[in-house]
Amino acid sequence: MRSLFKNCYYGLWTPHLLKQAKEDGAIIGLSYHRFEQKYKNDPRPNMAIVPETFIAQLECLMKIGRFISLDDIYEDYSEGIKFVLSFDDGYADNHDILLPVLERLQIPASIFAVANYVNGELQFLPHDAQSGHWPDALTPAQLKALSAHELISIGAHTLNHPILSELSPEEQRTEIIESKKALEELTGAPVKHFAPPSGQPADVDWDILVDACFDAGYKTISSNFGGINIEGKLEQLARAGAHLTHIRRIPMPVHPGTITAKGWALGMHNLKERFHPTAHFPHRKAMT
To answer: Based on C-alpha coordinates, what's the Rg of the chain?
Structure first.
C-alpha cells in the first residue's frame, strides 16, 4: 500500500517537474556510491544499489534527457535535459561493475575518490567502519585505468573522508588541496573537480572551501544539496581569471522501481531547493 501511494504521489508530480526541467534547460547532477547484489544486503542504508536497478534508472532517464560529462558542462549547448552522473568514495566496484555499464550505455561519469583510501594508507572509510562493513577500494592501478578511460573523469573527495566543517581551517585546506595532488600523482592526469564528503550545507565551511579550491586549481565543487543546475545560470565565482562552479547533485534512491527515481531526479529530492534555491557560495557573486 505504501509503495502504491508513493508511486501515485510521484506520478502526479513528475509531469510538472519534467515540463519545468525542459523549460529551465536543467542540468541534473546524480550521485551514487557503490553496488550490492541484493537489495538491502549492504549494512549501510541507502549506500549501495543493485546493478539491475541502477541500469533501469539510467535507461529511464535516458528517455527524457541525455548524459554529459562534468568536463563538458560548459561546452554542451544542446537543448533539453542533461544529466551528470557521479560516484563518491572510490570503491572497487566502480571499476568492476560501473565501468561495464557505462561502456554498454555509452554514458560518461565522474568518480570522486578518497585519495588515502585508494592508495592504501586508509584501510576503511569512517562511515563503513560504523556499519561494520569494509568494502574494497579501487587499487591505484584501477584508478589510473579509469582515469585514462574516455568515459571517466576522476575528482577528489578529500584525503581521508572527514566532515570538513569539523576540522580546523588548516586541516580543511590540507584535505582539499593535498587530495588533488595525491590523485594526480596516482593517475598522471589533472584532477579538476572536488566533492566534499556528505556535501550538505552544514558539512562545509564554504569560505574555506572556496578559497582552498581556487588555490588548488579546481574547476567545480559538487554538493549533495539537491535542486537543479540551470543552464546559463550556473552558480559561479571568479578570481583572477579562474572560475569555480557549484554543481548541485541529487543523492539517488536505491530501492527498485523507476517512478520514484525519475521524480527524485527531477527535483522531488528537495522541492524547496528545486523552486527556491538558496545561495550556496558564501554570499559572494565574485572574488577578486
So the answer is: 18
The answer to the question of residue 59 being in a domain is yes
User: What domain range is 161 assigned to?
Assistant: 2-275
Position 5 confidence tier, pLDDT thresholds 50, 70, 90: low
Could you tell me the CATH number of the domain that includes residue 153? 3.20.20.370
Contact indicator for 226, 269 with CB cutoff of 8 Å:
yes
| C-alpha pair distances (Å), 87 with each of 113, 222, 248 | 8, 11, 14
Q: Is the pLDDT of residue 8 over 80?
A: no
288 falls within a domain? no
Model confidence pTM above 0.85? yes
Q: Is residue 46 part of a domain?
A: yes
143-174 burial by CB neighbour count: b if 16+ within 10 A, else e?
Answer: bbebbebebbbbbbbbbbbbebbebeeeebbb
> For residue 286, what pLDDT is reported?
42
Please enumerate in sequence order all residues whose Cβ is within 8 A of that of 62, keeping only pairs 6 or more positions apart, or say none.
Answer: 105, 107
What are phi and psi for residue 16, nearest 5 degrees?
-65, -45
Mind listing the pLDDT tens digit for each residue in 142-161?
Answer: 999 999 999 999 999 999 99
Chain segment 254-280, per-residue pLDDT in tens: 999 898 899 999 998 888 888 888 877
Q: Assess if residue 280 is contained within a domain.
A: no
Q: Helix, strand, or coil here: 82? A: strand
Map grid coordinates 579509469 to a residue: 146
According to DSSP H, which parts of 63-168 are helical? 93, 99-105, 115-118, 126-130, 140-148
CB 107 within 8 A of CB 151: yes
**Structural domains of the chain, count:** 1
